[in-house]
Amino acid sequence: MSLIGQRITVLGGGVAGLAVAVALARRGAQVTVMEQAEAIAEVGAGLQISPNGVAVLKALGLGEALAAVGTRAVAVTLRDGPTGEAVLRLDLARQKPSAEYLFLHRADLIALLAEAARGAGVRIRLLQKVETVTLGAHPPRLTTAQGAEIEVPLLIGADGLHSRTREALNGRVAPFFTHQVAWRALIPCEAGAEPVAQVFMGPGRHLVSYPLRGGRLRNIVAVEERHRWAEESWSATDDPLALRLAFEGFSGPVPGWLEQVEAVNLWGLFRHPVAARWHGHGAAILGDAAHPTLPFLAQGANMALEDAWVLAAMLAGHDSAEAAFAAYQQARAARVTRIVAAANANARNYHLKGPMRLAGHLALRLGGRIAPGLALSRFDWLYDFDVTATG
Q1: How many CA atoms does the CB half-sphere of 173 hold within 13 Å?
Q2: Spatial separation of the C-alpha atoms in residues 262 and 240, rounded to whole Å
Q3: Strand arrangement, sheet containing 46-49
Q4: What percentage of the chain has pLDDT greater than the value 70?
Q5: N or C: which end of the chain has fewer CB within 10 A?
Q6: Within 13 A of 364's CA, how many CA atoms are on the CB side?
Q7: Is the pTM of this model over 0.85?
Q8: CA–CA separation, 221 vs 61, rounded Å?
Q9: How does 151-177 read in b/e, with b if 16+ C-beta sit within 10 Å?
Q10: 151, 58, 38, 128: which is closest to 100 by C-alpha?
């Protein structure tokens, strides 16, 4: 179908929503993004854009802008939390010299995508909280918090973990609390910090940190296993002392970093199934709305970028929206299911205890000495994949 002049409404102004809006508008669609917040902005946090995500941003014409705000990673280091000693170093600069792994402030990526969307003619409507999505015989119908009812020709649900569009397609499914919580914080970064993602692994907990914004900030994400429930919200806050107490047994630079934390967010980690239905009745979902993932492989934003490209390409290349939506789910479902499973496995591997932890760390150390490129090549299927190469 020709997208020239086709009216499409996107719910959600995050990474998934803005990326798909840009991809559709660049193909001629008239796109409206409905965002519930009062401004297109993101809470401060870091994210990692791996080569599969970078490929999409470059294909959208955002390569130069991305290079200006991203910090290129040279390595990932796995370290023992209690001792601070290195267990395994994945040398990206040497083993994957042409591949771009970037550290980005989430707000910078949102700003980059929002500017590109507006430049492509996307209309962004703020303060549009959609309470209900109704799908059926008529075009998709949206009911806002103010009581307005809006019918749209085509609807793309990029409305995140608590997606109304996903609920309309699949019904409500209760997520499973993983009994893990995550803190995130930003602190000033020490001068001359190497652009490396450091993962400190300990029994029942781990901490990830890397520099942002050219080394001016340091991003911290710390995860602890616990039985107490925590809200699944990126905006909930906690006392920095709770974070310090949870990781008081860690060594190396961790204690010094945590002493600098003045404000910290806390959210509960829930496991959601990959949606069974991604489309129907003139609507489709992408990103977290379709396949929420735990943060242990840093692929949430990257999967959203891949989805956005494929969905737009399928709409441009099929005779009808429903055929395009079906092809989109067919193209994406197996890959994202594999990524979600790999993230779940990382959660277990980072938190090993007792003899299993000793054996696991020994195996990583030996593997790093005998075949230093093997650990990184295990994820070639993930990072070397380029959705833009086929359309």
Answers
A1: 23
A2: 6
A3: 46-49, 102-105, 71-72
A4: 97
A5: C
A6: 21
A7: yes
A8: 30
A9: ebebbbbbbbeebbbbbbbbeeeeeeb
A10: 58
pLDDT digits (tens, 9 = 90+) for 171-189: 988 778 888 999 999 999 9
Half-sphere exposure (Cβ direction) of 121: Cα atoms closer than 13 Å: 14
User: pLDDT tens across 304-321, in order?
Assistant: 999 999 999 999 999 999
The residue whose two tokens read 């500017």 is: 115
How many residues in total does the chain contain?
Answer: 391
Q: Which two tokens stand for residue 184?
A: 């995130």
* Neighbour-count burial for 243-277, b at 16+ CB within 10 Å, e otherwise: bbebbeebebbbeebbeebeebbbbbbbbbebbeb
Given the residues 101, 210, 328, 350, the one annotated as active site: 210
H, E, C per residue of the chain: CCCCCCEEEEECCCHHHHHHHHHHHCCCCEEEEECCCCCCCCCCCEEEECHHHHHHHHHCCCHHHHHHHCEECCEEEEEECCCCCEEEEEEHHHHCCCCCCEEEEHHHHHHHHHHHHHHCCCEEECCCCEEEEECCCCCCEEEECCCCEEECCCEEECCCCCCHHHHHHHCCCCCEEEEEEEEEEEEECCCCCCCEEEEEEECCEEEEEEEEHHHCEEEEEEEEECCCCCCCCCCCEECHHHHHHHCCCCCCCHHHHHHCCCCEEEEEEEECCCCCCCEECCEEECHHHCCCCCCCCCCHHHHHHHHHHHHHHHHHHCCCHHHHHHHHHHHHHHHHHHHHHHHHHHHHHHCCCHHHHHHHHHHHHHHHHHCCCHHHHCCHHHHCCCHHHHC
Q: Look up tokens 């000793």; give the residue.
A: 358
- 350 noted as active-site residue: no
